[in-house]
Write a structure and sequence with these properties.
The protein has 479 residues and is mainly β. The chain folds into three domains: 247 residues, Pectate Lyase C-like; 59 residues, no CATH class; 121 residues, no CATH class. 7% of the residues lie in helices and 46% in strands. Helix 2 links the parallel strand 1 and strand 2. The two termini are 27 Å apart.
């Protein structure tokens, strides 16, 4: 079995962030009330006051008076800053702007580091605004957002009224983030992660009408992330998924793309590279129509329309060609909702994240571990349509543990390549009645299912094609 450094990553990351926070605490301490920040002040006054208190970083900004503070614009946070709110403090959006809080470098192509935010409660107040594809951060979409950051900690985050346009928390292009302690209930994604490494999301309660936690290396680009690429070394733990949520408890998305060539067939949200420049087809009408591209884009900002009438959005210039998920652990989760951990290759009218010209040997990687998870309602713990390497340890479900189907849904022009799964199941208890414990619905699917060290009071029930090899010391029945 492969080594799993997630726990070590979490310990080191938390220690590093604690040290950074202590450094910030030893610097200048500022109360924004000195600049007019008050529950009784106008939103414009509060926004200016909080911004003045934060400007320049290298300080602790401490809001000492609880209350509801209206804001009418983005507030930017610099490197080496601790922002500490007294319990009972609420930041309330009073106009439809994007971010209650965002790091300074997100929109000026800078990088920020060593940021700590504590006890932040956001009240969205129906004031949401989707990203501008021609901004410096197209797709940055959280009420609290971090883009190009290192060592960022957010403790005790609360938001229970966001709707269908924006995520609660969005982090992109990161190295070292922690979200520790949260209550998130709303209509869009709760915690949304794109390209990055070394993350911890822990100690929270979720109920969302879209994905609770999105670990999206691949993505519907343009409107949803400013950059594409892999996510690795992550830990999601100690979370209760409340009843009433929709879509997925966690969405795990990968993708890969290739070099543009004349005559290339492109669908809405397809990704490709021209040299080191990475582009996507956006925005185009929903549907599975393919467009024949004869003119390569060369621009490096915003949207450009080709002579063939295809809209191309510039994403990045780092030559990235794939978006994998590596070494991500889901641990100590109580799932009180039907939704699952969903492992996807998007292949629908919204996006096609594995281009048809990609050969199977180059398919993206999903590598996750699922342990100490209890699901109290029917439905798979893990489902999806992508190839995946998954380790299950000590999980319990009323319904199936795993349900995976063929990745293509006959989208125009997309070949039906077989999925490949390597699944290891240890230390699980199989008792009671079950229609099926493991479902592999791809008739051409390949891979392994290893059942080892489990307590089986009945045979484990498996639906799988002939290409799935089953081994181990646990009795099973194969359909």
């Amino acid at each position: 079995m492969k080594a799993r450094p997630s726990v070590a990553v979490a310990v080191v990351l938390m220690a590093l962030l604690a040290a950074r926070g202590a450094t910030a605490e030893s610097e200048k301490v500022v109360d924004p009330a000195a600049f007019g920040f008050s529950p009784d002040a106008a939103p414009a006054v509060n926004a200016r006051a909080l911004q003045t208190a934060l400007d320049g970083g290298k300080r602790t900004v401490r809001v000492s008076k609880p209350g509801v503070y209206g804001l009418d614009r983005n507030v930017y946070i610099d490197s080496d800053t601790t922002l500490d709110f007294a319990p009972g403090t609420v930041l309330k959006k009073m106009k439809p702007y994007q971010h209650v809080l965002v790091n300074r470098g997100a929109y000026n192509y800078g990088c920020d580091s060593n940021i700590v935010v504590r006890n932040l409660e956001i009240r969205v107040n129906k004031m949401e605004k989707e990203p501008d594809p021609n901004s410096n951060a197209p797709g940055l979409n959280g009420h609290i957002s971090f883009y190009r950051v290192k060592n960022v900690e957010c403790r005790n985050l609360t938001c229970t009224d966001f709707e269908r346009s924006q995520y609660c928390y969005h982090a992109v292009d990161f190295d070292g983030i922690v979200v520790d302690g949260f209550v998130i209930r709303g209509g869009k994604d709760g915690i949304h992660l794109n390209r990055g490494r070394n993350f911890v999301v822990r100690n929270g309660v979720l109920r969302t009408l879209d994905d609770g936690i999105a670990v999206n290396a691949g993505e519907w680009p343009g409107g949803f992330t400013p950059v594409m690429g892999s996510i690795e070394n992550g830990l999601v733990e100690n979370i209760v998924d409340e009843d009433g949520g929709k879509c997925n408890f966690a969405r795990v998305i990968t993708g890969c793309w290739k070099e543009w060539h004349p005559g290339m067939k492109l669908q809405r949200c397809d990704i490709f590279n021209v040299g080191k420049n990475v582009y996507t087809v956006f925005p185009m009408p929903l549907g599975t129509n393919e467009y024949v591209s004869m003119t390569a884009p060369t621009h490096k900002h915003g949207v450009w329309k080709s002579p063939e009438g295809i809209n191309f959005l510039f994403l990045q210039d780092d030559g990235e060609t794939r978006a994998d998920i590596r070494n991500v652990t889901f641990r100590n989760i109580r799932m009180n909702c039907k939704r699952s951990i969903a492992c996807y290759w998007e292949n629908c009218e919204w996006a096609r994240l594995v281009h048809p010209e990609i050969p199977p040997k180059d398919y993206p990687v999903i590598d996750i571990r699922v342990e100490n998870v209890v699901k109290t309602v029917p439905g798979a713990i893990v489902g999806g349509n992508a190839s995946a390497d998954i380790v299950f340890n000590n999980v319990k479900s009323i319904g199936p543990i795993l349900t995976m189907w063929r990745w293509s849904r006959s989208v125009q022009g997309t070949p039906l390549y077989a999925t490949v799964h390597n699944i290891t199941v240890t230390n699980c208890v199989f008792d009671g009645e079950s229609r099926m414990d493991f479902n592999f619905f791809d008739p051409d699917g390949k891979g392994t299912l290893t059942l080892r060290g489990n307590q089986a009071h009945r045979p484990v029930k498996v639906r799988a094609p002939g290409g799935i090899r089953i081994s181990g010391d646990t009795p099973f029945e194969k359909k």
